[in-house]
Structure formats: C-alpha cells, structure tokens
Amino acid sequence: MKNIVALIGSRRKNGNTATFIRTILDGLTEEGYFIDYIFPQDFQISPCVGCGNCFSVTECVIKDELPLLQKRILDSDLCIVASPVYVHYMTADLKRILDRCAWWVHTLRLQGKPVVVLSTCDSNGHRTVIEPLSEIMTFMGANVIATVNGSQVPNQLNNPTWLSSISEEIKRRIKKYIELPPQSNVFLEKNFNSMKQCMIWKNEILKGKKIENKELDYWKENGMLEYQSFSDYILSVSCINCCK
Ligand SMILES: Cc1cc2nc3c(=O)[nH]c(=O)nc-3n(C[C@H](O)[C@H](O)[C@H](O)COP(=O)(O)O)c2cc1C
C-alpha cells in the first residue's frame, strides 16, 4: 500500500489547510492509498538551540519526538507539506520542524522523494509560503511535483469549480509520481553539484585530522561523492532497493 504523509503546519485539524488537503486527496483512501495526517501539536518538538551539532558531530542534542516525525516522512512514498500563511510566511510550527531538520539541506536527505507543496491564505499570501517552502524542500532533496495556494480572496477555497480542477491535476501527479522511482530535476542537479563541491572541499580540509563531520560521512557512506549527477545517484539507489 502506498503511503502519503501530509505534514500540515496548522493546529486547526478542521481548518482551511487540512480541509483543502482532504478535498484534494478525496477518494484516494478508497483507491488503496494510506494517508497519514501530521499536525504540529501531535509531536512534542522543541525549538532548535543553534548548537550546529547536527551539521558536524552527532545527532541533535535535543531529545524529543522529532525522530518519530522524521521517520514517518522518510518512510513515506510521497509527502505533502502545507501551511497556512501567517504574516507573509509559513507558520512558526512548521518552520520549527524544518529548522530541526537543517542537516537534511546539506545531504539532500529526501533523496528525490515526490513532494507537493500547499498553502492557504486569506487575501495576500499567494506566493509567500509556496515559494520558500518549495525551495527548502528542493534543498532537502525532494522532487517538488506540484505547488498550489488556495485563497479566500479571490474565492478559491469555496469555489467548487476551482477546487475540482486543482484536485484533479494534483491527484493525477500524485498517482503518477508515487509509482515511479525517485526522480531528479534541474534544481536538484544544481543543488547536488554545489553541495558535492562543498563536501569535496571539506574532505580536503579534514584529511588526516581526527575531526568528525556527520554530513561528510553521510555523503561518503551513501557513495554520493562517486556520482556525476543526482539523477545517476538516485537511480543507483532505486536499483539497489528494487533488487533487495
Ligand atoms: C496569525 C495569522 C496571520 C495571518 N497572516 C496572513 C497573511 O499574511 N496573509 C494572508 O493572506 N492571510 C493571513 N492569515 C490568514 C490565514 O492564512 C488563512 O485564514 C488560512 O487559510 C488559515 O488556515 P488554517 O485554517 O488551516 O489554519 C493569517 C492568519 C493568522 C491566524
């Protein structure tokens, strides 16, 4: 059974954002997809303390429920990341979760996973969440397959014609990409190349020194430094998984 995780940055379980997502996903449960809704208040997650340990030495110093949430995202076949617009940005709840996953940005940890980015707003936040959130997801290694904001003004969230055309298109992409092995795109390739250069540089600097670097270890352990492109790398990973 294919597993879709919807990470929703609103505490309102029946609010506009959750309702928008349920409308888009309507019918998928009956078709055999498992949908896992995650709200910020479901997990006890503290703010990042800024020590930078996750980048370099060890796991996060904060011991809370973040690893449980991360596992649900990593184990999913496709992820929806959504937030209402709060003062021209995503909610602090969602940003707190992303800050705590900061090392994923340097390791493309989502490894080509298909991701849909959504937001809702009243009147003037049409791009203020979907643009930065899509960028963050791409830096984390996700293949963003669709982005959409639903607003009250102009009326989209209560407009059945708009909702039905958006839902149809997003469902079509979800069903297509969830069946494919992880995919790359031009933004992921650019990101892979620049991060790879950083890791090669770090490797040179740390050569012969007994200094741990968790991110560099991740690149090495996963063989990512050996590949010319992200596309070649994720293809090799999906071949290994498929032969298991
Ligand atoms: C604290 C706060 C700040 C908001 N800021 C904006 C904003 O800058 N622009 C906007 O268009 N809507 C803004 N809104 C409206 C919400 O984005 C909108 O109602 C959203 O659909 C709520 O989603 P929810 O019901 O899932 O929480 C704000 C709402 C709140 C509570």
UniProtKB/TrEMBL annotation:
Ribosomal protein is among the record's keywords = no
Instruction: Spell out the InterPro entries in the cross-references.
Output: Flavoprotein-like_sf (IPR029039), FMN_Rdtase-like_dom (IPR005025), ISF_SsuE-like (IPR051796)
UniProt keyword terms in alphabetical order: Flavoprotein, FMN
Q: Which domain of life is it from?
A: Bacteria
Q: Which Pfam families match?
A: FMN_red
Q: Which GO terms describe its molecular function?
A: oxidoreductase activity
The segment(s) forming the NADPH-dependent FMN reductase-like domain are: 3-147
Q: Which positions, given as ranges, span the membrane?
A: none
Name of the protein in its database record: NADPH-dependent FMN reductase-like domain-containing protein
> Organism source for this protein?
Eubacterium plexicaudatum ASF492
